[in-house]
Q: What sequence folds into this?
């Protein structure tokens, strides 16, 4: 399972790096859907560039009108982009804050727990206090939360080169998990006991999610 997810992430990032328009199904907030081609979205995109086919004229659809997008590349690899709120904690005050608008995440794990990530044109980590995204090229930011929730919580930042760019990976994950998984004491306790390493944090988290169910 973990190896499959990691392979899927590698394929996703490769596709993001090269693809312009790929096959897509847009699931609209009003319950309808649009099928055609779309550009891959970035976290803070307020519009999605879409066209019904190769020859059709491009149109820009407000992200607020779209719930999720299912992308399929030429190799039949499927990627899900979903729009959710983002919650993070201030590095200095520790105060939690939730984004005013939903952001785009690529969902890489979706069971009792949902894990989303962003990694394209630099890391897109939303900063609620500044109301914008900020980034560092070549990094991946991971977020997690309950499947049935409407938000994901900042988990940790990892360099694409495997370098630990955030020295507080373990403490961040443990702090955010207490907020994200309130009501799931078994999972929180398991996360608290784990010695997280930036290079393997994703695999460690997924292993914990698999062994400790959180409804």
A:
């Amino acid at each position: 399972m973990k190896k499959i997810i990691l392979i899927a992430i590698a394929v996703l990032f490769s596709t993001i790096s090269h693809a312009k328009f790929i096959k897509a199904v847009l699931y609209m907030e009003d319950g309808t859907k649009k099928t055609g081609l779309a550009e891959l979205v970035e976290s803070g995109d307020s519009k999605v560039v879409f066209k019904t086919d190769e020859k059709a004229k491009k149109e820009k659809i407000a992200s607020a009108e779209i719930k999720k997008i299912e992308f399929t590349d030429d190799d039949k690899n499927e990627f899900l982009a979903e729009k959710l709120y983002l919650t993070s904690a201030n590095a200095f005050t520790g105060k939690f804050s939730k984004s005013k608008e939903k952001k785009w995440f690529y969902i890489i794990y979706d069971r009792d727990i949902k894990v989303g990530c962003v990694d394209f044109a630099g890391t897109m980590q939303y900063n609620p206090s500044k109301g914008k995204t900020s980034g560092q090229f070549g990094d991946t930011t991971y977020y997690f939360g309950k499947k049935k929730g409407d938000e994901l919580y900042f988990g940790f930042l990892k360099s694409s080169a495997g370098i630990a760019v955030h020295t507080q990976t373990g403490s961040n994950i443990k702090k955010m998990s207490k907020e994200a998984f309130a009501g799931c004491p078994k999972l929180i306790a398991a996360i608290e006991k784990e010695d997280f390493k930036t290079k393997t944090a994703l695999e460690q988290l997924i292993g914990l999610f698999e062994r400790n169910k959180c409804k």
The longest helix spans residues 2-18.
